[in-house]
Amino acid sequence: MSATGAVVDERLRDQWLQARRDVGGAFFAPRAEEIARLCHRMAERFARGGRLLAVGVSPAARSDVRHVAVEFVHPVIVGKRALPALGLVGESAPVDVELELAAEPDDIVMAFGEPGDGAALAGAVAGARRRGCLTIAFSALGADWELEPPTSDPFIRQEIAETTYHVLWELVHVFFEHRGLLGGRTEHRVHDVGASSFLYPFLGEREHDLDAILADVQRSVVMKADDVQDLRSATLFGSGEALARGAEMLRRAFERSGRLLALGNGGSATDAMDVVADFASPPAGRGWTARPALDLTADTAIITAVANDIGTDAIFARQVIAYGRPGDVLLSLSTSGNSLSVLAALAEARRRDLVTVALVGYDGGRVAAEGLADHIVISPSQYIPRIQEAHATAYHLLRELTELEHG
Length: 407
Fold this sequence. Notes:
This protein is α/β, with parallel strands linked by helices. The chain has twelve helices and ten strands. It has a five-stranded parallel β-sheet with strand order 2-1-3-4-5, sandwiched between helices.
């Protein structure tokens, strides 16, 4: 099956959505209690000074490493605390050495990748366990908690993993709101309010409420997984034509020696990393051609130089000036559709005759209202984690459609 006339074949769309619904249903509901208990264990580690150390070595895994780190350090939910997190991807030393140098007993280690990604990744997990870290992995790497999606499709595996670590990040905060449930913490957080307890029961947080809180968190896990599936459907039904046209433009660009340029801020920057990895290092076994793609979020020296000397609004536009050529395709990701650095890059791309594709959330923001991109895919939600998860599905399908046009 293929996309014909820049419209996604309905059977193909339904097949994509059903595959994700089937895998999500087989994963989240059966493992919701386990994920809830893991949130509690992570909260206990954070409460006594632990950090999250995310590790990965493959191009695709590195984007998840960066994504989960920025979510914990820079929470997008107003009022939620920043939690310490580091991403280790083997830049300064082999990843197992990086982790050995960084890890402390109260830390949480989250590993991204497959067993075939190299002995260093499995060795990093094993070393972290010996040190006393809580270890989590999304494949069989010998971690304490292995949350492996029940599918061999690499795109769906990544999407399930992303929803899982978003859920872990969202729901770990529930236990900070019930601090009396955090065993092993360094601060005394349970208050004996004596006879006043009937007036102010929340002041006397008790450990015996743990089962009730875990049950609430378990239900929330399933609800969030259902929400993203609904948003995937809304995205593909509402913006399927834009997605198909974007794939068609990409295919034409590659046929004419053009390139893909991708960009975004924060979690969307890590999505841009993932897009570039998917095009430049396609999944094995599919016979897909590696495509030229540039990640405009990758070079911190360029980004910080431009931000320091000109301003943050220009961090991507200046790179479009440097790298963009007529016929290239610029893919921008923005959950709000209002990021000034994204808007400036889209404007510069149009001036230079690049094709522009935008993945946005909410109602599309200024990108949609002002028609600032040629092809606009909207994930209609106000909740950033779900938008990013739907965007992952959209750009995975964009990658697949680019190849299916040949088949």
